[in-house]
């Protein structure tokens, strides 16, 4: 696992470019503290930071072919590199290292851009083809590893993290303010754009070619369902067990010790369990909370009609004992959680209001004390149907049988009325699946955006950002639940789930591998009938049956899907959080972007919310508050007074 940076050498002389590329690589030293390497000529500058996992003494990057015409920097792991190596050796290519990077070097020589679809693994790749003066870059099919770029004429700046771009004196740093409504509605950017204007993400399963100042992108892999109704639920469970176990084994390839995250839920438990079957004494790592707020917790516990689960450490510990897996734990208290937010947002590069990123930061720090590599359970929900929104869409599928004009009329009326039970359902059901897709319990609804944003003209139509994904899914003639899973896989998963998994683990120089996000596991998931994924009573149905077949306790195999719980809902009612966030909500930056009175009222409502009644709980606004607070922390780091320390070190004329 590593990180890379690069740019076309159009602005400065070679000596200056060498200084700039070194500064850029230093900004991402956390991604690769073990080694650094550079390639600079009159056309391009390439920098690399290495976290040594395979072929520890060899495989230095940038890596070249024998005659120096192909230069590669690569972040990730290729799990089928040994098979590809044998194929390339049969074609006459000679290898001088034992790692996976050289497979990409010779694979590009042999197959050109066709090499990317042959790779099984997680990757972001930059290849300089000197003979053609062409830069070729690619990203894995799931978007596990990040790749950013900014194209301005003959200048192309690219890398694993945006913060490295700030070291380039010609980089244009500007806020992409037009993306704020999308961020508030989704908590992430739903396309290739970022909150830095003109900085884009290379989309998953795509490669791009930069030649003669022209940039073109091309898709080399597209998620395509091929539903197979010939097998029973029980048979599919057996297929899943076999495919996932093989994937876990493939993801164990390393020349260093590896471990596993363990939350106590089914996804990470499956990964940890399978690892434990392959090797003894696999270390597992779990995170929980030193919550405090005992009076408030007692008040919540007294409510018979309401339950909030704030800590999963007991579940993780119980599973670890059952599976005979050593388990290390860390607890995060309220002040630690709050104090780390600016650091978290710095490492994230893009503002992300997901509270689950912070425990991921702390458990990564815990794991890095003992191992360099961990496996985790990301991707299971998207592939196998675990999110509540799939049940939601199950209900919308029934509602969509009502003629659209009637639904549109009902939604229009509901939008004009004050809150009532069913209002959001009517609004979300007034169009197609792209409109019902928004996770309304987590993020701002479109009618709230004019209240939140200062001087916002609107109208806000968040469904327009994800409609292209639904249009693509509809071409496959699949039902609404499957369409929604497709959209999650091409947007929510890479732009939120994989983003925080990569950035939080790499902030601690820890490689995080995700065996659910594997070509062979995906192939199984794309064949599963909808009823084996989601129905009236089940989510991840076949996956849970698979866990039961492995002997998992019913508590784990049948545990309802829950988000990665944080105690923020309670902490936001304390003076510590209220005072800190109110200061941010009334800051100069807050006044620039938001209607401050609305923010403060929302914060006051949450602080005074009463857990004992439905109406009182309706005032809880944790996700909405946290979304904006994270943006303001991110803005201060990259555009506020704190950003002064991120200016380029290299002086240019």
Molecular structure report:
This protein is of the alpha+beta class and 653 residues long. 43% of the residues lie in helices and 15% in strands. The protein contains 29 helices and 17 strands. The chain has a 6-stranded antiparallel beta sheet, with helices on one face. Strands 4-5-6-7-11-12 form a 6-stranded antiparallel beta sheet, covered by helices on one side. Strands 15-14-13-16-17 form a 5-stranded parallel beta sheet, with helices on both faces. A hairpin with a 5-residue loop joins strand 4 (63-64) and strand 5. It is globular, with a radius of gyration of 25 Å. The model has no long low-confidence stretch (mean pLDDT 93).
Weakly predicted, low-confidence segments: none
Biggest sheet details: 6 strands, antiparallel
| Class inferred from helices and paired strands | alpha+beta
Radius of gyration equals 25 Å
Global mean pLDDT: 93
What is the number of helical segments per DSSP (H or I, 4+ residues)? 29
Largest beta sheet: strand ordering: 2-3-1-9-8-10
Fraction of residues in helix: 40-55%
Number of strands: 17
């Amino acid at each position: 696992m590593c990180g890379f940076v690069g740019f076309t050498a159009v602005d400065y002389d070679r000596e200056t470019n060498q200084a700039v590329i070194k500064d850029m690589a230093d900004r991402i030293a956390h991604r690769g503290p073990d080694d650094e390497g550079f390639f600079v000529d009159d056309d391009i500058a390439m920098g690399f930071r290495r976290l040594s996992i395979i072929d520890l003494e060899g495989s230095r990057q940038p890596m070249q072919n024998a005659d120096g015409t192909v230069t590669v920097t690569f972040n990730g792991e290729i799990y089928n590199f040994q098979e590809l190596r044998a194929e390339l050796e049969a074609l006459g290519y000679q290898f001088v290292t034992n790692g996976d990077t050289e497979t990409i070097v010779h694979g590009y020589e042999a197959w050109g851009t066709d090499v990317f679809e042959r790779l099984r693994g997680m990757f972001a790749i930059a290849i300089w083809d000197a003979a053609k003066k062409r830069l070729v870059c690619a990203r894995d099919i799931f978007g596990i590893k990040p790749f950013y770029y900014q194209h301005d004429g003959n200048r192309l700046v690219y890398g694993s993290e945006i913060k490295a771009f700030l070291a380039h004196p010609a980089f244009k740093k500007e806020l992409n303010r037009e993306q704020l409504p999308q961020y508030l509605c989704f908590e992430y950017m739903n396309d290739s754009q970022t909150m830095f204007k003109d900085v884009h993400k290379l989309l998953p399963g795509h490669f791009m070619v930069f030649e003669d100042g022209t940039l073109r992108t091309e898709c080399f892999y597209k998620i395509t369902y091929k539903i197979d109704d010939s097998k029973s639920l029980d048979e599919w469970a057996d297929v899943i067990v076999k495919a996932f176990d093989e994937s876990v084994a493939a993801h164990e390839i390393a020349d260093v010790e590896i471990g596993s995250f363990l939350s106590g839920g089914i996804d990470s438990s499956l990964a940890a369990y399978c690892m434990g079957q392959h090797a003894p004494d696999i270390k597992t790592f779990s995170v929980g909370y030193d919550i405090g707020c005992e009076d408030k917790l007692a008040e919540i516990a007294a409510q018979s009609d309401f339950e909030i689960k704030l800590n999963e450490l007991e579940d993780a510990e119980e599973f670890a004992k059952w599976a005979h897996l050593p388990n290390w734990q860390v607890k995060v208290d309220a002040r630690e959680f709050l104090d780390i937010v600016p650091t978290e947002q710095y490492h994230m590069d893009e503002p992300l209001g997901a509270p689950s990123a912070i425990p991921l930061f702390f458990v990564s720090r815990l794991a890095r004390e003992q191992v360099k590599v961990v496996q985790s359970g990301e991707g299971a929900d998207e592939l196998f149907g675990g999110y509540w929104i799939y049940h939601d869409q199950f209900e919308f599928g029934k509602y969509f049988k009502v003629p659209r004009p009637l639904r549109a009329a009902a939604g229009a009326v509901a939008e004009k009325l004050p809150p009532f039970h069913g209002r959001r359902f009517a609004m979300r059901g007034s169009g197609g699946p792209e409109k019902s897709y928004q996770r309304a319990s987590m993020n701002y609804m479109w009618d709230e955006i004019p209240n939140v944003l200062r001087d916002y003209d609107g109208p806000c139509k968040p469904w327009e950002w994800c409609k292209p994904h639904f249009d693509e899914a509809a071409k496959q003639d699949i039902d609404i639940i499957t369409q929604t899973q497709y959209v999650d896989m091409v947007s929510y998963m890479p732009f939120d789930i994989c983003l925080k998994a990569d950035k939080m683990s790499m902030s601690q120089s820890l490689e995080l591998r995700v065996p659910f996000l594997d070509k062979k596991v995906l192939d199984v998931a794309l064949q599963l009938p909808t009823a084996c994924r989601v129905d009236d009573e089940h989510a991840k149905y076949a996956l849970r049956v698979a866990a039961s077949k492995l002997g998992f306790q019913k508590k784990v195999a049948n545990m309802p899907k829950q988000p990665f719980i944080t105690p923020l809902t309670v902490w936001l009612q304390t003076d510590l959080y209220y005072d800190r966030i109110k200061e941010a909500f009334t800051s100069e930056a807050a006044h620039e972007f938001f209607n401050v009175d609305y923010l403060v009222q929302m914060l006051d409502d949450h602080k005074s919310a009463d857990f004992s009644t439905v109406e009182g709980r309706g005032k809880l606004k944790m996700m909405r508050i946290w979304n904006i607070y994270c943006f303001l922390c991110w803005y201060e780091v990259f555009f506020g007074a704190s950003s002064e320390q991120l200016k380029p070190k290299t002086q240019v004329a």
